[in-house]
Amino acid sequence: MALKGVILDVDGTLVLSNDAHAQAWVEAFAAFGYEVPFENVRPLIGMGGDQIIPQMVSDLNNKEGVGKEISTRRKELILNKFGNELDSANGSRDLVLKMQEQGLHLIIATSATKEELKILLKVAQVDDLLHEATASGDAEHSKPAPDIVEAALAKSQMTPEEVVMIGDTPYDIEAAGKAGVGVIAVRSGGFPDEQLADAIAIYNDPADLLAHYDNSPLAQAA
Fold first, then answer.
1. What is the pTM of this model?
2. Could you tell me which residues are beta bridge partners of residue 107?
3. Enclosing domain of residue 52
4. How many CA atoms lie within 13 A of 212 on its CB side?
5. In this structure, are residues 106 and 133 in contact, taking their beta carbons and an 8 Å threshold?
6. What three-state secondary structure class fits 181?
7. Which domain of life does the UniProt lineage start with (predicted)?
8. What are the backbone angles phi and psi of residue 71, rounded to the nearest 5°?
9. Average pLDDT for runs of 10 along the chain of length 222
10. What is the DSSP letter of 105?
11. Do residue 199 and residue 156 come from a single domain?
C-alpha cells in the first residue's frame, strides 16, 4: 500500500531536547526532596510523566499529590527555563517541507503538553507548517503505550498500513509497533542503534533522512 502520511515525534526528533527534559525532571524531583540522578532518568526520556514518575519513586504518580506537583514543576521548567535553550535538530524544517511537497499527510504524536509543543515547534522552525497534532492530553497512557499513536491515526483518519512514524526513542518504536505502524528512527535523540533495532530504518537526523529520501521508506508516497 502506498504511503499516505507520516506521524511525527517532536522531542529528540525535530528538536534536540532530550537532555533538557532529563535535567528538568532532576530539578523537579529535587524541588520536592527527591534525589533522582540524571543518568537514571535520561534513558527514560521519550516516555511521559505517567511512566517516569513511578519508575523513579514507586509510591508516586502524576495524577495526585506530590507526584502531580513534580509533574507540574517539570512542565514549568520546560516552559520558563529550558525551552529558551533548545536547538532544532539538523534539517527538521527542510524534511517537513519535502514531505509536504510529496503530498504526505503529517500529524504530530507527542508526550508533550500543548503548551510545550507550541515552544518546541517554534524551536524546530516548523510552527508555520505543522498544525495537526495529538499531545499528552489526547492519550490516557504515554509511550510506550500505543495510545498517542492510535489517537493520531484516528484524528488523521489513516490506517496503520498507510503511514510510518519518525521517532528517536525505543518507546516510539514500541508504541507505534503496538499500533501496527513502522518507525523510521533518528539518532538525534541520543539512543544507541541497538535500542533502535526494531525500526524499519535508522538515520542520523532529519537532514540525513532528507539526504537519502529517495531510497528511504518515505519514497513510497502515492
1. 0.96
2. 7
3. 18-84
4. 13
5. no
6. coil
7. Bacteria
8. -60, -40
9. 94 98 98 98 95 96 96 96 96 98 97 93 98 91 95 97 98 98 98 98 98 95 60
10. E
11. yes
